[in-house]
Amino acid sequence: MSKKVLNNLLESIDNNGIEYLLPQNLSLAILSRMLEEAEALDSRTTEQTPSSLILISVLHLHHGEHLGDAIEIQIEPEKLMEYFSYYIASLRLEGMKRGGLINLTEKSNPTVENIFDSTRMMEIKDLKI
């Protein structure tokens, strides 16, 4: 991963809080990189495209605030993988929205409080696939 992309992500978290990590708030460059990471996870090619940005994002959102330099997080591996899947699903929907393939209502956008909620409802309109 480009150190510049990682630094850009961390700087954006510093400037905007962890709300920046919600897919609808990500810059196109960061969203695109995270979608590449998600694809690498699916194809099991993470040695070429490590899932570092997704991991950093999931841990920040799980913690609920900026992590800082010397924080320790404990999370069960099963829960971490569950959060990865919810976050990646939200990233992919945002990518489809920005690509003009779907429309999501404003209330469908994830929040810090509900991004990992398995009961969160999304309203997808104008499916163009």
What report would you give on this structure?
This protein has 129 residues and is mainly alpha-helical. The chain has one domain (3-125). It has four helices and two strands; from the N terminus they run H-H-H-H-E-E. The N and C termini lie far apart (31 Å). The mean pLDDT is 87.
How many structurally independent domains?
A: 1
Strands ordered across the widest β-sheet: 1-2
The value of Rg in angstroms is: 14 Å
Distance between the amino and carboxyl termini:
31 Å
Summarize the main sheet. 2 strands, antiparallel
In brief:
This protein is mainly alpha-helical and 129 residues long. The chain contains 4 helices and 2 strands, in the order ααααββ. The longest helix has 22 residues, at 77-98.
Short key terms for the protein model shown above:
2 strands; 50% helix; 3% strand
Write the topology of this structure:
Elements: H1 3-16, H2 28-43, H3 52-63, H4 77-98, E1 103-104, E2 124-125
Antiparallel strand pairs: 1-2
Helix pairs in contact: 2-4, 3-4
